[in-house]
Sequence to fold (498 residues):
Amino acid sequence: MAEALAALQPGARWINGFAQLPPVFYTRLQPTPMPQLALNAGNGALASAMGFDSEWLQTEAAAQVLGGNALLPGMDAMATVYSGHQFGQWAGQLGDGRAILLGELAAPDQQDSSQGLELQLKGAGMTPYSRMGDGRAVLRSSIREYLCSEAMHALGIPTTRALSLVTSPQPVYRETVETAAVVARVAPSFVRFGHFEHFAARNQLDHLRALADYVVQRYFASAAQHASGTPARYAALLADIAERTARMVAQWQAVGFCHGVMNTDNMSILGLTIDYGPFQFLDHYDAGHICNHSDSSGRYAFSRQPQIAYWNLYCLGQALLPLIDDEAQTIAAIDAYKPALESAMLAAMATKLGLPGEAARIADLANPLLTLMQQHRVDYTLFWRELSQTVKNDRLPALAHWFAGDAAFDTWLLQYQELLANADSAQAADLMLSTNPQYVLRNHLGQQAIEAAQRGDWAPFARLQSVLAAPYQEHAGCEDLAALPPDWAQHIAISCSS
Fold:
């Protein structure tokens, strides 16, 4: 009990905003305990920012709480209900099938005392929404989620965060027998598009309005300027979500991130990357790359992500239409996505090229380059990093080795040099080196960390985690983490069951 009471910083407190909604939104329940819990990874900086005592993560009490065997005083554990479209088809009721929200914690120095960070356990046991599942997560998927959510944060991409990774020898049955694990993940809110779809599909308009008013009041200040119950309030909410989604997707495309399963129940209303399942960072550039082996139709291919996000927003718009009560106004709110995406994409590519002042002209430069990269199977991350370095060292012609003497690249390079001549090359290089990462979580790096951890060796995980936390820096002795992927990497299969 002493360790439990010492878990929080003085002044930190549980505020549990979502629990203030009516019980129809969730089911209160306890996580299902597991034996022999071990806390194998802990995020001390995030713990401190939340209001935890960072040293508490080193205690046995932390492993018990973050593994689902105990609750701290003030936690209010629950699983939330939502519905959604999966692979383009209405799936009906879904919900937190293996995620349990423990509560919302406000740090002592939180400027807005009404807001905190929600803490959710993924893999902590069955809920009423588990359907045919067991409510558990396996070690391999938990490692991937922990590493990727923190890697995305370090890249500056909106995302849920990872507080801890706890393991248990309890067997979990997938294609084979695997080891159980629990990731404690953190976000201001885990509300998804599917939460709205759920109540709209049931024509439960009072609940739909209550949910919309809740998220507006807590997270959408511009929409909150409109009176509760007015169509303008909900149209403003939808437009804000559209713009946040656009900015997130633009950042995915710029860094070469494939989400892999952009179902509406995997879309955050806050524009956060959420639910790391069959994701991948591109190796060689391929606009049509499909990272999810469950995606037989290629619905969630890399180049289709912007289009799918727009489709998902239409689903959200349809759910909010009863509150907005005007089809044209609803479509206009959804269509806020288009200019926001275009602007964010151009700005991102201009920054990657070191030409932020040329955003209006950047498509004519970026699109031909991407075409060349696809034709020559150029490694996406390494090329952009080398481009940054050659600008810094004034050695741009050295990039020709990626394109096997293709004259089209020489033409592109001349066009790029003409634009670059009007910029401060030193400033451009510094901008590019802080924009184009040296390190991303490639599939084979994650796989190596997983295989080592399955043998009980967590050193590769820790090394990879440390490097991914500073992806724009050079890390001596870590050249292998920024090298071309080995041939076997192309055979790694990640699916929805992973």
